[in-house]
Amino acid sequence: MRVTKPNRVTRTFTQQLVAEPEEVFTVLCPVRETDWLDGWDPLVVFSQSGVAEPDCVFLTEARPSNAIWYITRHEPSHGFVEMIKIIPTVTACKLTFQLRPVGGGSEATITYAHTSLGSEGDSFVASFTEEHYRQFMRDWEVRINHYLSHGSILRTAGG
Asked: Model pTM greater than 0.85?
């Protein structure tokens, strides 16, 4: 057995969203994200209800092999979702969403904790800088707010 210290990076960002937590919570789902996130297209979703729920598993394209996502906690009454994303031999990631009401909208605190599983993961962890994460989260914030305000997807250039 080999035990080693993890090469890990954790980033947190709080988005300001234009809808109440109950409305936002429904679109934090591998199926519903296709309504607002241009290019999001899970390969398969394993779900009893057809949407996000505890023990929902879904696959997305990744290299060198598809990413496996597992929803470990799904708590609508607390505005909380936790999932694990594994890209075999690359990274293991814990992703959490915590929604809170603020005025007529909500705040979403989103945390990604990526742990490297090898040399490709080491490169990914090194590239997952605070600036990269902030830009990723701001783009996501614009897209989800567009959907929450207009009910339509914000297309990327050329999309």
From this structure: yes
